[in-house]
Amino acid sequence: MPSITLFQSPPPESFQSQIQQLVIDNLTTISQVALPASNRLYPLYQYGVGYEVHLYLQAMDGSRGFPVEVVAALDDDDPSQVLGFVLYLPLTNDPQACTLLYLAVQEGHRRQGIARAMLAKVLERYPHAEMGCTVSQVACAQALGFQVLGTRGSQVLMNTRDHASAGLTPVLDTAPIYRSVEVRQIHAYLLKQHGEQAMVNAERQRDRHLDQLTKDAQAFVKVHLGR
């Protein structure tokens, strides 16, 4: 079993780079958009979500005025290698609660109990944890001790308890990322590469995809909770 390590201040730069790479490699399964790699906008969201995680890692120095924590699984044979991570936010006004934002494990190290071990470390500190996931991921979340509470946009809302915390989740405003020069440059490159119509189609596909995820989440929760 890898070494499960808690970071309450920014991890070493090499670890941060590996965490961001895990985000980029697992965009479909860990982001709220859950965009498939076949969508032409995929590289743009890889940058956007990767940069969001970068900002959260920077915020671990306290500069944003709220706590950010990371639990990472480090390879026992090579402790410089990050095999997985969980990035989460402790809630204000509830010392037992947190919101999980991102969780990923390297593809070659899955089904080895790494995600469970990382979550156990988180729950030692914050036993009342909440997260969102797509319908297809609900069974995995349940196996890790989460239960269905409701919906949050395109996601099913999961919690380690049968109720949400009254605490508040302090989150970063990510809208400026998608208005940045870098995102505009990526979009311009994709537009030149694929053409205007293909990019318009990609945006429509993204919107339909999100609409379907939302409908799926609502239908699942209605059946699961009987409401």
UniProtKB/TrEMBL annotation:
Q: Which GO terms describe its molecular function?
A: acyltransferase activity, transferring groups other than amino-acyl groups
Q: Which domain of life is it from?
A: Bacteria
Q: Does the keyword Transferase apply?
A: yes
On whether Plastid is a keyword of this UniProt record, the answer is no
- Which Pfam family, any one of them, does this sequence belong to? Acetyltransf_1
UniProt-listed InterPro entries: Acyl_CoA_acyltransferase, GNAT_dom
Query: Mind telling me what this protein is named?
Result: GNAT family N-acetyltransferase
